[in-house]
Design brief:
Length: 422
């Protein structure tokens, strides 16, 4: 029987990465939940978007009810505050939680506690009690409870530091680190063995998310930092920490997190699926990695999905320049068609192809059986005259779309829009 795995909250970038990492596993049945209706609705077949916030008095009872209803075995928390809260209440919820140690999650949640825990290490940045202690300006003000660079402010002098600290909730005054930045994805197994240490660069960052990453050569200092963190904290599953070089080029710690990072996809691109390793580890299986070092660059971009509010059960689709181009299959169209087939949609090929469409399909190595019906128009009739019922229409030719939209009143799309339809 597959494990029932809950991702909560499920609309964030790291929640999407957990979804992609686990969706094809025969060991997992995925569920997603959030306290606001979010992008998780587009990803998770089993989804609930109206849980109370974790600081609401009714959250615990609602969360327990959801866990029981879905018979959840294991939870991935995708936000640091949620991670800390669930770890504190794990016995009440009676469910497996990736990185469930309450003390560890509490230390990782607050930078002040993190820096205090490792204060004897040379890679902890200088934390100043007040502006008078700052030796070198500029310095940095950041919130104790922030993550991913949120609330970061560079201050040039004591006056700027005082003003910024007054405007910041739980401010910390820290040494400025001007050098390169790296994120280090790690994995600790049920025997507390550190199974993976994977540094990656943050070469282009948007909203705290690394959009371009490369993989630097093995660095003994980074490995040593990971080992010390793993020795002192009770970690199990995926976790990560962020580093930045100081004025002398030495690595200094920015933060530690007990959850999956959104850009852990970079490791998965190299063959190291950290969320799936966590599932197997939860099942008591010893895990090992098989990294593909030939992968040396990961580029990301924003993915856009659109929701069609008008219900449909049939897709009418053109052939030439829509399913095939120059006699070859258009891979993105086939990807769309198979997605729709998995959702139980009826597929109808509606074409004016000059030759025999069955021969053209065979030459393009597309099975005719993919389509529930193939309508070959040879007498010039309008495509709109063949469309019935609740449907959508796809054609690269604008006049055909105008005809169908005008006479059938259904949604019509060009080929470029197929990637949006979920």
């Amino acid at each position: 029987m597959p494990l029932n795995v809950l991702v909560f909250p499920c609309g964030s970038e790291n929640a999407a990465e957990i979804h992609q990492a686990l969706i094809h596993s025969v060991h997992v049945r995925l569920h997603g939940a959030s306290s606001v209706d979010d992008h998780g609705r587009q990803l998770y077949e089993r989804y609930q978007g109206d849980l109370p916030r974790i600081d609401a008095p009714e959250f615990d009872d609602a969360f327990v009810a959801l866990l029981r209803h879905w018979q959840i075995d294991l939870v991935f928390a995708t936000h640091d505050t949620v991670q800390a809260y669930l770890s504190q209440s794990r016995e009440r919820f009676n469910v497996g939680l990736i990185n469930d140690d309450a003390r560890t999650c509490a230390i990782a949640r607050r930078k002040s506690l993190t820096y205090a825990e490792f204060a004897d290490q040379p890679w902890v940045p200088h934390v100043y009690a007040n502006a008078a202690q700052v030796v070198h300006w500029p310095a940095v003000v950041k919130p104790d409870l922030g993550q991913g660079g949120q609330g970061f402010a560079l201050v040039a002098d004591p006056q700027a530091a005082l003003a910024t600290m007054a405007a910041t909730t739980l401010p910390l005054l820290i040494e400025y680190l001007p050098g390169e930045e790296a994120t280090v994805d790690c994995f600790t197994d049920f025997e507390h063995a550190l199974r993976w240490v994977g540094p990656r660069t943050r070469e282009r960052v948007r909203a705290g998310i690394s959009m371009r990453s490369t993989f630097p050569a093995a660095d003994p200092q980074i490995t040593q930092i990971a080992e010390v963190i793993n020795q002192r904290l009770r970690l199990r599953g995926p976790w990560f920490f962020q580093l930045k070089r100081d004025h002398s080029g030495q690595w200094k710690l920015l933060e530690i997190s007990c959850r999956v990072a959104g850009s852990m996809v970079a490791q998965r691109a190299r063959g190291v699926n950290l969320p799936l390793m966590a599932v197997h580890d939860y099942m008591g299986r010893k895990v090992r990695v098989l990294p593909q070092y030939a992968v040396d660059l990961v580029e990301r971009r924003i993915l856009t999905l659109a929701q069609i509010t008008q219900p449909f059960d049939t897709i009418y689709i053109d052939f030439d320049e829509t399913v095939i181009r120059d006699g070859l299959a258009i891979a993105s169209t086939l990807h769309f068609l198979y997605r729709m087939l998995a959702r139980g949609k009826r597929l109808v090929l509606l074409t004016r192809h000059a030759g025999d469409p069955l021969i053209a399909l065979r030459k393009a190595r597309i099975a005719a059986e993919l389509f529930d019906d193939i309508i070959h128009i040879t007498d010039g009739r309008a495509k709109s005259s063949f469309i019935v019922g609740k449907a959508i229409f796809i054609d690269n030719h604008f006049p055909e779309r105008v005809d169908v939209a005008t006479h059938c009143g259904i949604p019509v799309f060009d080929v470029d829009a197929l990637e949006f339809i979920s």
